[in-house]
Design a protein that fits this description.
Helix content is 50%, strand content 8%. The protein is globular, with a radius of gyration of 38 Å. Residues 306-427 form the NACHT domain.
Length: 1194
């Protein structure tokens, strides 16, 4: 390829930009460049500046894909510039070919080639040339004389000359351009402004050798405040405007749900509007590739991961969560457009995986407009601005595999640029992992009482104002009593809401024992309320008195059963199902049965809102749990043949576990049917045992269950020993399976089964089958706690000994996968976020209610489990409150308040410039080209510039340290540490930084205007490493803490603030002792903060020979322990040094026993009577009123 030529004689960027402006305008209005002989259906679609092609000024692509290349010259005559342009044309034809239009554009063709534009056009079209036109053709042939004749003629066929005067706004061509532009504008007066916007855009692109599409030109008009007329059949810009309007209308539709909490049952209960609801929804990222488990708001996680699987148990609020997520994004500009798809509809429509296409998927969306909206987003050219929320994978039942196969094809194909969230229950989570997406667990509400109590307050508004407050107080007490008695309900939002409704409508706080009871009571309460109103004559007598409470309840079971068999269900099918029930069970004639069935469906839709019919006539359940309850109620009264068939079908589908557990609560006879099933025996016995761990089963059923557990445990053995395993080659699931072995689940199930005394010998024989001694200890402890619960007694002394033995085993470990020598004497692989043995944390929770004889040994062992209580709802509070109630003071974790933000904020508010942030580019050498689809998802720049404390660091401070010390490597390592803390992709950040570098320091704001950032976020979480991240990052942390830059050390402290690592803390102490810590105060405070035994660490710092460290220890002590709980605090209070006593907050009454005071400037000792240091001019004796000032000065 030839080099670029002709630049020396070109008119410059102004004329070239003018030509590009006209091209952009023609593209917006959909008009061809007639002077270049384009057809009416060909209009510019994209243009590029300074390409790598030989003819390089402007390259244009039309709507039909054809290409044209321009060389722009303000004046063009037969001179060196023309020869240079022709040379470039020849080079282009030789390297690219003759398929493109090659164009010389000029405001004025002069001399021999004055008539070149018309001459070339007539020559191609067979016209008669004038003498001047012949002279122009002759001049070109002479300039091409060195080429052979055939090639010369082909060049003349390809060459175009365009006389266009567009150098500035007063040029002749601008007037028709303004006229064209006015045809698509809402107001003609904006025509000149619109041209100015396009010209500004083009000038910027010309300066940076950029590209521009019609869409980008249209976006520039929108950003410039230009209003266009929307028209799907109009010019390209008008079509884009119409697509934008369609998306905006769709956003408004979804945004209307923002903050709305719909009650699970209607019963005259008002809708609740909770401000900021989406910000309270949190989730836990738990991915095998993640550095650690971290809880954050779902909004942050969605932005971070972009594509993931969201899983939660029944009634956890998945539906509310996705509706709020969609409403938030719809109400927030520059965010992805959410499309909610119900997968149960997709399963019904697609018989085979190949049936699942984008059109079929979109036809299952919540709103009919979704398909047109998707088309509009595609028309706007950025499918990355869509987020698909695929809800209810578990509801696909036996079609889960086919649906996953189809979704996998879509997510790696048409949906590869879009965001994707798949929701499911944990029962099919293993199958969902086929999508190769990270998994995220929906967290339980931090305040499970908050929304239910708001609902009680909302219901109270309909009561007389006199006595309303007392009524709310009484109902709140009743609500708390129910939740206290039923802890498994408090963490489930659906059940908590129902309990609130039941409590608000009842005069008593009837105890609730299970989820099934709560759901059934909710259904029966609605039916009873309807019966009361019907009896009182408050309802229209449309049922002639025949629609009684029992029949309504049968209708509920019938609709729910039909939905369980096949979802979605049409309104006609649901009515037909209920009518058949009425005819068979009640002997009602067909016509009457059909009328009653229609009224029943309306009742469960409009009155109760449990089975809701949408505008398309499809009946859907407000919550899948209501379907499962109906299915459980149906099978509980079914014939033995139907029951056996139901059990067989349920055991075949792993997602049916919740329905089976509900059914067992209605009829324990189902347990016998499950245990005698021919297939899926292991699943059956584990499900029955799980139910039996919380509920009582008949003795015969228990005996059969124990026998099956025994036979399974006896048959299962590890096929591979730990010593033979290459743990690094295993994924998380394989590691867990190998760690626990195939036998442990049966042993643990037997240990937790509620057995009467006569069956415990059989149960204990199963426990003895455990392969390792520590497993036997764990199982024995569980069995003893369970026995105490069954016998309704406290734990005996022997039980307590077994319990203490179990807790004395090493605590579960967390963090990056690593190997260590375990209590078994073997190298063992621990996986992030997994307890060492299943059920360890739950063992503590199970034992709390049955320990009557607390000892200090038990208290000491139980308290650490509070820090692992995130695995169990409310367990941390239960552990600590039980210990306090038993009379044992709970040692609170004394944590230092975070380093003050002023330490890292710039006094002038200036953020990083490009010179400082170039360090990010050195984090990785990987080159990444960001696509337009990443405009919203590329959020690492948020975390690394706009949101982090580091991003607000003092420009002056950093500049000074860059000059006085070589810290470029430190800065790079610090940035890498931030990337780890934020799970950010350094390569993507580097690409964005490269964009910023092109414009210099002042162009960082350009990151927003070019779309890589929508807007600086007002609130973002700080960049802080997870508590378990220390081991793999120790060397980096120690290196940064030894940096000569105070800024680097301070920023490192902020990042590692949550880490707890005794090894790291001890190494920091060694740095201080060996005088390798340039920032002594920061190193002291972070060594204390990261220590697992902070009191002991502070004591070691306070006993160092260097008096500066003793001063730092005193300041730390006064910050975290004003009451003197720590032994180190009391040690410092008794110091002979009065300064240390004052700094550590010692009582003033003991000051007279001090012997001397030390200066905090020169560290020398002074006699007590002296108030000014006798060794330096700035030191003075601190007094108690200035202690805080002295502390802050550091």
């Amino acid at each position: 390829m030839g080099s670029r030529g002709g630049q020396a004689n070109e008119a410059g960027s102004s004329y070239r930009a003018g030509v590009a402006t006209l091209i952009a305008v023609l593209g917006l209005v959909g008009r061809p460049i007639l002077a270049l002989e384009y057809a009416s259906n060909q209009s510019p679609n994209l243009f590029e500046f300074e390409t790598t092609d030989p003819l390089d000024d402007i390259a244009m692509t039309d709507t039909d894909g054809s290409r044209a290349f321009f060389q722009c010259k303000r004046t063009c005559g037969r001179d060196a510039a023309l020869r240079s342009a022709l040379h470039q044309i020849i080079t282009h034809t030789q390297t690219v070919g003759f398929d493109d239009r090659l164009i010389i554009a000029s405001a004025d063709f002069i001399g021999a080639i004055r008539e070149l534009p018309t001459a070339l056009r007539k020559r191609r079209n067979g016209g008669v040339l004038t003498s001047r036109e012949r002279n122009a053709i002759t001049a070109i042939r002479e300039e091409l004389s060195q080429q052979d004749c055939q090639e010369t003629e082909r060049v003349l066929d390809t060459l175009y000359a365009w006389r266009v005067d567009a150098a500035d706004t007063v040029s002749p061509e601008y007037e028709p351009a303004a006229a064209w532009m006015s045809t698509i504008l809402a107001s003609n007066v904006q025509a000149d402004s619109a041209l100015a916007v396009i010209r500004t855009l083009v000038h910027r692109l010309a300066a940076s050798a950029g590209t521009c599409t019609v869409i980008e030109s249209w976006e520039a008009l929108f950003a410039g405040g230009i209003t266009l007329k929307p028209d799907l059949a109009g010019a390209p810009a008008q079509q884009l405007e119409a697509h934008k309007r369609r998306i905006e209308e769709y956003r408004k539709l979804l945004a209307a749900n923002q903050g709305i909490v719909r009650t699970p049952i209607k019963c005259s209960v008002p809708e609740l509007n909770v401000t900021g609801l989406i910000n309270t929804i949190q989730a836990l990222v738990d991915d095998e590739d993640a550095k650690s488990r971290s809880t954050s708001t779902l909004l942050n996680i969605t932005r971070r991961l972009r594509r993931f699987i969201l899983h939660a148990g029944p009634g956890a609020g998945k539906t509310t969560t996705i509706e709020q997520l969609a409403a938030h994004y719809s109400a927030t500009p520059d965010t992805p457009v959410p499309i909610i798809v119900r997968l149960r509809k997709l399963a019904r429509k697609a018989e085979f995986p190949t049936d699942i296409s984008m059109r079929v998927l979109l036809s299952c969306a919540d709103h009919a407009e979704a398909e047109q909206v998707y088309d509009s987003i595609r028309a706007l050219g950025d499918l990355g601005k869509v987020i698909f929320i695929l809800d209810g994978l578990d509801e696909c039942r036996t079609s889960v595999h086919d649906v996953l196969s189809g979704l996998r094809r879509l997510t790696t194909g048409p949906m590869r640029e879009a965001g994707v969230i798949v929701t499911t229950r944990p029962s099919v989570l293993d199958q969902a992992r086929q999508l190769d997406l990270p998994t995220v667990s929906l967290s339980e509400p931090k305040s499970p009482r908050s929304i239910p109590l708001q609902l009680i307050g909302k219901i109270a508004q309909d009561r007389p104002s006199d006595g309303r407050a007392e009524w709310v107080r009484q109902k709140t007490i009743s609500f708390d009593q129910v939740l206290e008695r039923s802890r498994d309900i408090s963490g489930v939002p659906l059940l908590s809401m129902i309990v609130a409704i039941l409590v608000a409508g009842s005069d008593n706080s009837e105890a609730t024992s299970s989820a099934a009871d709560v759901l059934e009571r909710a259904v029966r309460t609605g039916v009873d309320e309807h019966e009361r109103r019907r009896t009182n004559g408050e309802l229209i007598p449309y049922d002639n008195g025949l629609l009684t409470a029992p029949r309504l309840f049968d209708a509920y079971v019938s609709i729910g059963r039909a939905l369980a068999i096949s979802q979605p269900l049409s309104l006609a099918d649901s009515t037909r199902s209920v009518a058949e029930t009425f005819m068979q069970a009640w002997g009602i004639p067909p016509r009457d049965a059909e009328e009653l069935a229609s009224a029943s469906v309306v009742f469960w839709d409009e009155t109760m809102s449990i089975f809701v019919a949408n505008s398309s006539g499809i009946v859907e359940a407000r919550s899948q749990q209501f379907v499962e309850l109906a299915d459980a109620l149906w099978v509980a009264s079914a014939s033995s043949d139907d029951r056996d068939a139901w059990i067989t079908n349920a055991l075949r589908d792993a997602s049916m576990i919740d329905t089976v557990l509900l059914a067992l609560s209605k009829s324990t006879e189902l347990a016998d049917a499950a245990l005698t099933a021919e297939n899926y025996c292991e699943r059956a016995v584990l499900w029955v045992a799980r139910y039996g761990s919380e509920n009582s089963l008949p003795a015969t059923t228990l005996e059969r269950c124990l026998s099956l557990l025994h036979s399974n445990a006896e048959e299962k053995h590890r096929t591979q020993r730990y010593e033979e395993v290459d743990w690094d080659s295993l994924d998380r699931d394989a590691s867990v399976a190998l760690r626990d072995g195939p036998q442990w689940q049966f042993v643990l199930a037997a240990a937790r089964l509620r057995c009467p005394a006569k069956l415990r010998a059989l149960r204990n024989s199963i426990l003895s089958l455990a392969e390792y001694p520590d497993e036997k200890i764990i199982a024995d402890a569980f069995a003893r706690v369970t026995d105490a619960s069954v016998d309704n007694r406290s734990m005996t002394e022997e039980d307590l000994d077994a319990f203490v033995s179990a807790l004395s085993l090493p605590l579960p470990q967390h963090g990056e996968p690593f190997t260590e020598e375990t209590r078994r004497g073997s190298i063992f692989h621990l996986v992030s976020g997994e307890p060492l043995l299943t059920g360890r944390v739950e063992l503590v929770g199970s034992a709390l209610s049955f320990i009557s004889n607390f000892t200090s040994e038990i208290a000491q062992l139980m308290e650490p489990y509070a820090s692992f209580a995130s695995f169990s709802s409310g367990l941390e509070i239960r552990i600590l409150s039980t210990l306090r109630a038993a009379g044992y003071p709970v040692q609170q974790n004394h944590t230092i308040p975070p380093l003050h933000r002023k330490l890292v904020e710039a006094p002038d508010g200036r953020r990083w410039g490009v010179h400082e942030i170039e360090a990010i580019g050195r984090v990785t050498d990987k080159s990444v080209n960001l696509r337009p689809s990443e405009l919203w998802w590329a959020t690492e720049i948020f975390d690394l510039i706009d949101a982090m404390d580091l991003g607000k660091a003092s420009y002056q401070e950093m500049t000074r340290e860059l000059w006085t010390a070589e810290i470029s490597d430190d800065l790079t390592r610090l940035t890498r540490l931030y990337c780890v803390a934020l799970d950010a992709d350094p390569a993507r950040v580097r690409a964005i930084v490269e964009k910023a570098k092109a414009g210099g320091d002042d162009e960082l704001q350009e990151l927003i205007s070019i779309g890589y950032i929508s807007m600086p976020p007002p609130y973002q979480r700080s960049a802080i490493l997870a508590p378990d991240s220390a081991d793999q990052l120790q060397d980096e942390i120690l290196y940064l803490m030894s940096s000569p830059s105070n800024f680097i050390a301070r920023a490192t402290c902020r990042i590692i603030w949550n880490i707890k690592s005794q090894v790291l803390s001890e190494k920091l102490l060694s740095m201080m002792k060996s005088d390798e810590a340039p920032h002594r105060y920061l190193t002291s405070i972070i060594a204390f903060q990261t220590s697992i035994t902070p009191d002991r660490m502070l004591r070691q710092i306070s006993e160092m020979k260097d008096p500066e460290f003793i001063h730092h220890a005193a300041r730390i002590s006064s910050t975290v322990d004003t009451e003197g709980h720590m032994s180190t605090t009391r040690y410092l209070w008794a110091s002979d040094d009065l300064t240390i006593r004052i700094l550590s907050g010692a009582p003033e009454s003991e000051d007279h026993t001090a012997i001397y005071w030390s200066c905090d400037r020169c560290w020398n000792q002074n006699k007590i009577p002296e108030e000014d240091c006798q060794h330096c001019p700035k030191g003075f004796l601190p007094d108690r009123t200035s202690r805080s000032k002295t502390h802050n000065r550091v």
